[in-house]
Amino acid sequence: STKCNLSDLILNVCEPYKLIAATHGINLKLDIPQEYRIMIPQKQFSRAFSNIIANAVTYTPNEGSVFVCLKEHTLTVENECIPIDKQQLAHIFEPFYRPDYARNQNDGGNGLGLYIVASILDSLKLSYSLEPIQKPLGMRFTITF
After folding, report:
1. Do residues 102 and 42 lie in contact, with contact meaning Cβ atoms separated by under 8 Å?
2. Rounded distance, CA 89 to CA 133, Å?
3. pTM of the prediction?
4. Is the pLDDT of residue 107 over 60?
5. 92, 106, 113, 145: which has the fewest Cβ within 10 Å?
6. Which residues lie closer than 8 Å to 73 by C-beta, 6 or more apart?
7. What is the pLDDT of residue 2?
8. Whether 95 contacts 111, CB under 8 Å
9. Which H/E stretch holds residue 27?
């Protein structure tokens, strides 16, 4: 894997989601340095990050916010939503698992998004977590490089 500018990769992946977010009045905010060079397989990482951002935008209510931040060795994606409870969170990276609130939405999700994310990040030996946050109320996905 070659050194890539992670900042560019993130901006490129976020571009189409900005349009989707805008149509729902969702504020997609980015706090990304101009340059952050890292050795990472771009295609694989883009796919994982794309799934994370897609989930964040999908599960944010209209007029809500999604915030992407790259700082030091950490990439976080936060979105305003009803947090997933601990019981469901324990299963969130399993294949085909969909929390209750996702099952009754006609979003066509197949429950593989976060499973794919976990598989890719595991293969890249990157640590990650998904946890509820209080301010704003929502979820935070963290990847540590």
Report:
1. no
2. 13
3. 0.91
4. no
5. 106
6. 144, 145
7. 73
8. yes
9. strand 27-31
Q: Is the Cα dihedral 116, 119, 122, 124 positive or negative? A: negative
The C-alpha atoms of residue 77 and residue 93 are separated, in whole angstroms, by 16
Please say whether the beta carbons of 80 and 136 come within 8 A.
Answer: yes
List the structure tokens of 22. Answer: 């805008």
Q: What is the pLDDT of residues 28-85, one digit of tens each?
A: 999 999 999 999 999 999 999 999 999 999 999 999 999 999 998 999 999 999 998 8
Taking the alpha carbons at both ends of the chain, their separation in whole angstroms is 15
Between CA 121 and CA 17 the distance in angstroms is 21
Place of tokens 């609130």: 101
Q: State the Rg of the chain over Cα.
A: 15
Tokens of 76: 């976080």
Tokens of 136: 């704003």
Percent of the chain whose pLDDT exceeds 70 = 91
Q: How many residues does the chain have?
A: 145
Which residues make Cβ contacts (< 8 Å) with residue 48, sequence separation at least 6?
Answer: 116, 117, 120, 121
